[in-house]
From TrEMBL:
CC cofactor: Mn(2+)
Enzyme class: hydrolase
Designated name of the protein: Arginase
Pfam family, one: Arginase
Family: Belongs to the arginase family.
Record pathway: Nitrogen metabolism; urea cycle; L-ornithine and urea from L-arginine: step 1/1
Gene for this chain: rocF
Positions of Mn(2+) binding: H100, D123, H125, D127, D227, D229
Organism: Alkalicoccus halolimnae
Native organism taxonomy: Bacteria, Bacillati, Bacillota, Bacilli, Bacillales
């Protein structure tokens, strides 16, 4: 793995309605992410947090059922530029959220140089809504669809090109809450999804083997987008949209260890940690431990 990491904090909470997820980067740092990576021999450049705008009022559905659209777009454009800058310096971009709407900017930045990017979307949700299908109007439920080129122009246009990824290069892992429009889209686009059913049936090890093979088939890099709500809420309570019945902390560790062994991940983000909803920073600490495993940490 690339020994140089650029850490980018994105204190964004406008993609959803639970305030507090903007403190995610801060509590993940507090849980020791930089030290953890340095102990593994990485050179970490902490670029600090991006400055995110504030709307005059929260949660206004600006237009087309998209809450706080303009501020979310502006922040993602900023993130895309920051990622491009980090990559041009030869570093592995590690992005800390913030809500999941920031994946639009991460992918816009990463995909600039990788025209056949693979994506692992580790999440309880599909995040495949558009303004038309979303039951909530929350943009954190839309970043994957925006990245494959669907939805509002202002979202798909971030970074100046679209799509960022091809649906056949995407794998969703851990899904257990999908809206009707998302299910239809998964079928129409043939997106590979390992729901909890497949994880229970095959086991995490086999799921990760298959997923890794899928996202490396003909691709030129793999982005990991890990939403902490993928984990069972017992193990990661500090998230805004928890869903029962997820993979455990251990299973998720195994998933990260397999990715480390295969050495396929070229950029990553960890999102949706909300300290207001957390229990003694448990979810941020889980994120840091998982980041450790992703970057090759082993007990022996
Ligand atoms: N990144 C997330 N936590 N997304 C949750 C999305 C929930 C729901 N599907 C929606 O679109 O509103
Ligand atoms: Mn989610
Ligand atoms: Mn998500």
């Amino acid at each position: 793995m690339n020994k140089k990491i650029s850490l980018i904090g994105v204190p964004m909470d406008l993609g959803q309605m639970r305030r507090g997820v903007d403190m995610g980067p801060s509590v993940i740092r507090y849980a020791g992410v930089v030290e953890r990576l340095e102990n593994l021999g990485y050179e970490v450049e902490d670029r600090g947090d991006l400055r995110i705008g504030r709307p005059q009022r929260y949660d206004v559905k600006d237009k087309d059922n998209l809450k706080d659209l303009d501020v979310v777009v502006e922040a993602n454009q900023k993130l895309a530029d920051e990622v491009v800058d980090a990559v041009s310096g030869g570093a592995f971009p590690l992005i800390l959220g913030g809500d999941h709407s920031i994946a639009i900017g991460s992918l816009a930045g990463v995909a600039k140089d990788r025209k056949n990017l693979g994506v692992i979307w580790y999440d309880a949700h599909g995040d495949l809504n558009t303004g038309e299908t979303s039951p909530s109007g929350n943009i954190h439920g839309m970043p994957l669809s925006a990245s494959i080129g669907l939805g509002h122009d202002q979202l798909t246009g971030i970074g100046g090109f679209s799509p960022k990824v091809k649906p056949e290069n995407v794998v969703i892992i851990g899904a257990r809450s999908l809206d009707e429009g998302e299910r239809k889209l998964i079928k129409d686009k043939g997106i590979r999804v390992y729901t909890m059913h497949e994880i229970d049936r095959l086991g995490m090890s086999k799921v990760m083997e298959e997923a890794a093979a899928h996202v490396t088939n003909g691709t030129d890099g793999v982005h990991l987008s890990l939403d902490l709500d993928a984990l069972d809420p017992h193990d990661a309570p500090g998230v805004g949209t928890p869903v029962m019945g997820g993979p455990t902390y251990r299973e998720t560790h195994l998933a990260m260890e397999i990715l480390a062994e295969k050495n396929i991940i070229t950029s990553a983000e960890f999102v949706e940690v909300n300290p207001i909803l957390d229990v003694k920073n448990q979810t941020a600490e889980a994120a840091v431990a998982l980041i450790g495993s992703l970057f090759g940490e082993k007990l022996l």
